[in-house]
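Handout for the seminar on molecular recognition.
Each group receives one record of this type.
Step one: identify the two inputs.
Step two: read the structure output and locate the region that could contact magnesium ion.
Step three: write two sentences on what you found, then compare them with the reference statements printed after the record.
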Amino acid sequence: MLDFIRTIISEDLAAGRNGGRVATRFPPEPNGYLHIGHAKSICLNFGVAREYGGTCNLRFDDTNPAKEDVEYVDAIEADVRWLGFEWTGLHCASDYFDQLYAYAVALIAKGMAYVDSQTADEIRQTRGTLTEPGTESPYRARSVDENLDMFTRMRAGAFPDGAHVLRAKIDMASPNINMRDPVLYRIKRAHHHRTGDAWCIYPLYDFAHPPSDALEHITHSLCTLEFENHRPLYDWLIDNLPVPAKPRQIEFARLNLTYTVMSKRRLLELVQEGRVSGWDDPRMPTIVGMRRRGYTPEAIRAFCDRIGVAKRENMVDVALLEHAVREDLNTRAPRVMGVLRPLRVVIENYPENQTEYVDVVNNPEDAEAGTRPGPFSRELYLEQDDFREDPPKKFFRLAPGREVRLRSAYFITCTGVVKDQVTGEVTALRCTYDPATRGGDAPDGRKVKATLHWVSAAHAVDAEVRLYDRLFKTPEPGKADAEPGKTGNYRADLNPASLEVVRAAKVEPSAAEATAGTRLQFERIGYFCVDKDSQRGRPVFNRTVTLKDSWARVEQKA
Ligand code: ATP
Ligand code: MG
């Protein structure tokens, strides 16, 4: 079934509107890195263009020079491509500054805009409220000639910052506050990352966006719901400016995710305050962060497909995103063996100084992935958690006197425990193996209740493993002390256990050879991605997601 946006587009095409064209755009402001919310908008805009044989532009909405930077521009381009999309045209609102200025002049000439010399405070105070109309500015009656003269001088730098603004002359009594003579241009001496110091007046977003869409002959201007109240102004500008096309704005609900803060402003705070290691910290909901954590573009696209687009605000369970990642990695991440907290095991009936290679399946979900030779020898490491000296009832893993299977290798039986004389801590296990069980099955048909992962001590490589968890410990960070419609102190909800670094993990040699960005499943533990901090002989792995699927449980309950 088509979502409401695709329904509108299909109807427009059927009715022959826009000459049968579909043209969308993705318009980020380059004032931060893209996050998973932007991914939803990207999948929608580029997806629609792809499905309808249309076009999709990438447009930098760079009208606010104070906060924008080329670092963000470059990152945004890389992120869109990484997500699997390519833009038709690459544009910047700043490319249109001359044209936008000419449009503003045209509006003044029609008597539909004026220069207001009230202060920002006065403008705010006379705007009225939801229940009370605003009051007209004493400068509203300025003549066209005077407005043209003043606007020209604003542009020429004749006035200090904030001395005047250009406002649309619409209706101070409009029930829609956005229509109460909105500000179109302001004086601001700020260096722009593209236009340098060429301008000392900058258009506001609300003024720049509609004509930018029209100049690019956008047919469907898709944006998030907070712009719904701005649509009358969008249409007013399109109707009254001499623009070459009539785009239509359609709003959809933004993505909200549990356990996540999503605004660029807050993400920037997390970076600047050192609460994360940077925009690409694997706990960040940024595209760069998720990429470093091991998320795939396929998983993110599948997630965006699954949540769909709707008109009503809602909250998506982050477990659904994690589920999408798990589902994708399950089909293609090679399995390797890695032990996070090693417990040394000596197989006492295995010859010293012997190594043999057992066939280990690379991916049980993918027969084509084949097998690899895994080194097996007398000394191994098992996971500390997989052994209990005094096993509780439902613990089926290794314990004194008990037999278990080592994945792809042999059955072993625990025959003894070595302890630290002082602390009493278990430091090693003595075991025997059954040579007849090579490959993992007993010829006499005897069964074991557990299959454990392991690495050969002599062959294992030391690794650092970064166990990431959710960045926030509450589903709606900042909700506890929030005023209506606002986010409260989200910092108080940071999860103190969102990162645990395991420095002495042991991984099999094939895992240690993987290059940065490679995604692997550590058998029985989770999915991991080789981090860029890895060095030769000292790999670093980021945990992408555990194997436990809390979403599957949510679904079962439903
Ligand atoms: P933020 O609120 O995170 O600062 P923004 O809306 O200011 O984001 P823009 O750079 O203006 O960021 O966003 C570019 C496009 O991405 C816009 O069309 C915007 O509607 C869309 N977008 C931003 N956040 C979300 C979200 N959470 N869900 C869906 N679309 C989003
Ligand atoms: Mg914005």
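Reference statements: The first strand starts at residue 23 and ends at 26. The mean pLDDT is 96.
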